[in-house]
């Protein structure tokens, strides 16, 4: 099937099979991506030690912050491309591709330079102690030196999905997982590089995948391809990319702030091991979250195209199917966390104190998982159709309006359990808010369709 036909089928093929076609590669890719993160944690925990796990957990805010800038470009650009393809404005879509490359280069380099200049103060602010900062520093120096390649890799994968190539995006992600799994033991054990080895494995695997992505985009027979004249920054295109990308950007910045509060609270009430326990519990929860993100990524080009083409019935159909699938996934995560948490934790560590702490934390933070699937889909849906304001509000409400106050108030009364409980309490409130906004929007769309 040629690329034009693959793009046009977004508005003609049955929505259920289309969502399966686009979501399945994304789900596989996102599951692989979550396993990619778990592999690092498992090798670090088993090969370096419990304190290294805590040091790695301290880098989560850094990762959220880096992801924020990457999402502002990658998600914003991919949504803009999907809408333009739906409108059959192929020239603008081509220029968006070129601007995406330029923005990723600029953002990736600036983020690395600023972060490396102030690395130690930032890590202490994130909750590092004298015991954990050597591990966090060793890991982040390598990651930041290769940050521009990471930004470009994630950005190009988002554009691949928007351009009707979900399988290629999946292959790129799976390749990084396989290479990371191969390189981790080589660098950590054989070359005795410790936690730095895990960072080198991560960057090298992404660089190799990026090389393949750029080769795909160099094919002149493709509808979207790299060519001269598309890289110069266009103010209107950049404004549109940033406007739509602002929602995931703010969501990741808020996640950075929230994780800082979580780490500081856990450090205060449970010590360095509690920070490591959160790192483990978060990795397990992340597997299910990433699967839902895969569903969202499969939905995004379909929703964006049909919104641009004004096909309301298909738009609402893909929303409903995505919400149903996401709820099944998050409910599965709930069952795993409540019934076999110790089995999950044993993959990362054999330390009994860390195991008990992580298993308890996992049970608490994932106890409301069945209700958050639809909330994640709804937030992404508004982003996919260019409703940046609604998406930003839904992103911010969970993190800043609900979770942050809970992290301040609940630990004063319940100690470390209060830190853990803050997350499901905030998830419950934000899901109710999302439900109200979603019902209002669907009623409005139904009224428009019936007029």
TrEMBL record:
<feature type="transmembrane region" description="Helical">
    <location>
        <begin position="20"/>
        <end position="39"/>
    </location>
</feature>
<protein>
    <recommendedName>
        <fullName>Multidrug export protein MepA</fullName>
    </recommendedName>
</protein>
<keyword id="KW-1133">Transmembrane helix</keyword>
<keyword id="KW-0813">Transport</keyword>
<feature type="transmembrane region" description="Helical">
    <location>
        <begin position="96"/>
        <end position="119"/>
    </location>
</feature>
<keyword id="KW-1003">Cell membrane</keyword>
<dbReference type="Pfam" id="PF01554">
    <property type="entry name" value="MatE"/>
</dbReference>
<feature type="transmembrane region" description="Helical">
    <location>
        <begin position="237"/>
        <end position="262"/>
    </location>
</feature>
<keyword id="KW-0046">Antibiotic resistance</keyword>
<feature type="transmembrane region" description="Helical">
    <location>
        <begin position="390"/>
        <end position="412"/>
    </location>
</feature>
<feature type="transmembrane region" description="Helical">
    <location>
        <begin position="51"/>
        <end position="75"/>
    </location>
</feature>
<feature type="transmembrane region" description="Helical">
    <location>
        <begin position="418"/>
        <end position="439"/>
    </location>
</feature>
<feature type="transmembrane region" description="Helical">
    <location>
        <begin position="317"/>
        <end position="337"/>
    </location>
</feature>
<keyword id="KW-0472">Membrane</keyword>
<feature type="transmembrane region" description="Helical">
    <location>
        <begin position="357"/>
        <end position="378"/>
    </location>
</feature>
<keyword id="KW-0812">Transmembrane</keyword>
<feature type="transmembrane region" description="Helical">
    <location>
        <begin position="274"/>
        <end position="296"/>
    </location>
</feature>
<comment type="similarity">
    <text>Belongs to the multi antimicrobial extrusion (MATE) (TC 2.A.66.1) family. MepA subfamily.</text>
</comment>
<dbReference type="InterPro" id="IPR002528">
    <property type="entry name" value="MATE_fam"/>
</dbReference>
<dbReference type="InterPro" id="IPR048279">
    <property type="entry name" value="MdtK-like"/>
</dbReference>
<dbReference type="InterPro" id="IPR051327">
    <property type="entry name" value="MATE_MepA_subfamily"/>
</dbReference>
<feature type="transmembrane region" description="Helical">
    <location>
        <begin position="172"/>
        <end position="191"/>
    </location>
</feature>
<feature type="transmembrane region" description="Helical">
    <location>
        <begin position="139"/>
        <end position="160"/>
    </location>
</feature>
<dbReference type="InterPro" id="IPR045070">
    <property type="entry name" value="MATE_MepA-like"/>
</dbReference>
């Amino acid at each position: 099937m040629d690329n034009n036909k693959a793009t046009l089928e977004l508005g003609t093929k049955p929505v259920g099979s289309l969502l399966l076609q686009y979501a399945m590669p994304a789900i596989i890719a996102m599951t692989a991506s979550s396993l990619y993160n778990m592999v690092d944690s498992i090798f670090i925990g088993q090969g370096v030690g419990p304190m290294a796990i805590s040091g790695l957990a301290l880098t989560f805010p850094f990762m959220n912050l880096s992801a924020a800038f990457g999402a502002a470009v990658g998600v914003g650009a991919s949504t803009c491309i999907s809408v333009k393809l739906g409108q059959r404005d192929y020239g603008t879509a081509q220029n968006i591709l070129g601007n995406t490359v330029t923005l990723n280069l600029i953002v990736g380099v600036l983020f690395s330079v600023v972060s490396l200049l102030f690395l130690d103060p930032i890590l202490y602010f994130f909750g590092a102690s004298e015991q954990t900062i050597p591990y966090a520093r060793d890991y982040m120096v390598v990651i930041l030196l290769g940050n521009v390649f990471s930004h470009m890799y994630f950005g190009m994968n988002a554009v691949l999905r928007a351009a009707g190539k979900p399988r290629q995006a999946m292959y790129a992600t799976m390749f990084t997982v396989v290479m990371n799994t191969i390189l981790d033991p080589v660098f950590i054990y054989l070359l005795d590089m410790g936690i730095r080895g895990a960072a080198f494995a991560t960057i090298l695997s992404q660089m190799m995948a990026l090389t393949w992505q750029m080769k795909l985009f160099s094919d002149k027979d493709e509808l979207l391809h790299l060519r001269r004249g598309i890289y110069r920054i266009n103010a209107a295109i950049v404004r549109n990319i940033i406007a739509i990308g602002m929602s995931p950007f703010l969501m990741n910045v808020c996640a950075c702030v929230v994780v800082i509060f979580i780490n500081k609270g856990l450090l205060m009430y449970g010590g360095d091991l509690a920070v490591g326990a959160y790192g483990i519990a978060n990795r397990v929860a992340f597997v299910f979250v990433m699967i839902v993100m895969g569903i969202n990524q499969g939905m995004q080009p379909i929703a964006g195209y049909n919104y641009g083409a004004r096909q309301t019935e298909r738009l609402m159909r893909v929303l409903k199917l995505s919400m149903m699938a996401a709820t099944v996934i998050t409910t599965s995560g709930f069952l795993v966390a409540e019934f076999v948490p110790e089995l999950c934790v044993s993959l990362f560590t054999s330390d009994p104190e860390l195991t008990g702490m992580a298993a308890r934390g996992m049970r608490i933070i994932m106890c409301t998982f069945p209700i958050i699937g639809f909330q994640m889909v709804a937030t992404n849906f508004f982003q996919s159709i260019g409703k940046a304001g609604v998406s930003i509000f839904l992103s911010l409400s969970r993190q800043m309006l609900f979770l942050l106050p809970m992290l301040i108030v609940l630990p004063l009364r319940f100690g470390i359990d209060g830190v853990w409980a803050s997350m499901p309490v905030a998830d419950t409130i934000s899901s109710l808010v999302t439900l109200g906004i979603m019902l209002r929007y669907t009623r409005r769309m139904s009224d428009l369709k019936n007029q």
